[in-house]
Amino acid sequence: MPKIYIDQGHNPSGANTGAEGNGLREQDVTYEVGRRLATLLRQSGNWDVRLSRNTPDEVLGNSNASSLRTRVNEANSWGADYFISVHTNGSTDPSARGVEAYAYSRPSRAFNLGEDIVNSLVEATGFPKRGMFVRPGLYVLKRTSMPAVLVEIGFISNPGEAAVMRDNPGLFARGIYNGIVEYTGIQ
Fold first, then answer.
1. What is the pTM of this model?
2. Whether the bond into 56 is cis, omega within 30 of 0
3. What CA–CA distance (Å, rounded) separates 41 from 116?
């Protein structure tokens, strides 16, 4: 059974907290989307799933560096086959919109997985497609020993996209799940 590590980006407090916008905090959105994604994967019966944060108030590490290191070390020591890090984007421009994701390199399995996740999220949400990008400097992409994708599910700073994050977090979980299924062929 393939192992998938779902990293709910950022901590609820202390070091490594995320973006804020429209009355939402990134770390709360990513916790809920990740939890719902894990439920979908577990319900399929074909995945072994671990979450980086098992409760909404769980804090990983006591600095930005140790928070990221804890997530990567857990996935690597568990022997995960895939690593998905869930985030929300933010901008000083409230009209910025869309879904994008990052992988360490291209061509790679992670880049292809990310493309399927982005396409499925765009299909699920109707948000614009910003695309798939290479970001070799991101710690969770550089230090994981399995295909790793960091996905920005939308802009928390955009009122319309933030409203969907608040009202329908399951939509994002379903979009990511559909992308994983599309890439792996495993329901």
1. 0.97
2. no
3. 16
Measured distance CA(92)–CA(94) in Å, rounded: 6
> CA angle 26-165-146, nearest 5°?
60
Give the tokens for residue 125: 């949400």
Determine the pLDDT at residue 34: 98
Taking phi first (over 0 means left), then psi (-120 to 50 degrees means alpha), and beta for anything else, what does residue 166 get? alpha
Beta bridge partners of 167: none
The Cα–Cα gap between 171 and 104 comes to 26
Q: Compute the distance between CA of residue 65 and CA of residue 54 in angstroms, rounded to an integer.
A: 20
Residue with token string 């719902």: 36
Q: Strand, helix or coil at 166?
A: helix
